[in-house]
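Q: How would the structure tokens look for this protein?
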Amino acid sequence: AALGYNIAQNLFISTNNLLVEGISDLVYLQVMSSVLEAEGRTGLSDDITIVPTGGLEKVATFISLLRGNELNIACLLDSFSDQKGRQKLENMIQQKLVKEKQVRFAHEFVEGFSRADIEDLFQPDEYLKIFMAAFPEYEKVTLADQSDDPLPIISRINDAIGMPRFNHYRPANWLAKEGVSAAFFAAETLDAFEVVFKEVNSLLQPND
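A: Here is the predicted structure in token form.
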């Protein structure tokens, strides 16, 4: 019953649905779509609903609920950090709950990364600026130098502040409330998000 209630709270669906892991993903996508559209560029199509699932472990449950209703489903997920998550995806594909081509990962849109989160679509100094604004209690955060295989920005910040995990929603919430324009972002950031939106639009509207 508790699981059903939790799902019901998130189940704002339409014909075309993009499943993401968390609320912060939804906020970033909404903000950046608006920013790009204000510049006359491609954002997320208006008929696509972003559905936060509450984590990778619940993606399969959402897909199971939605798949029998003639709905279009795509996923935009953070890269897997362990074999368990990878196995869950493979099981969903094998069970034909979702087509492999309908699942996209953040690292596919970030050059040079084998593992990434949606926050890595921002330039590192850019996301750090957002983080610092959302967490004024940290006077200064210095990130360690990147290796040949860069770590996700969230992992780098966790290491810098000595915490296993910070509240990912706070930076997203700050960005949404600040109402920034395209001038706030680097060209690389705008380009990266536009590529994401074009890909998602194509996945969910293949006949357009």
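The first helix runs from residue 2 to 10.

The beta strands are 16-20, 48-52, 72-77, 103-105.

Upvote if useful.
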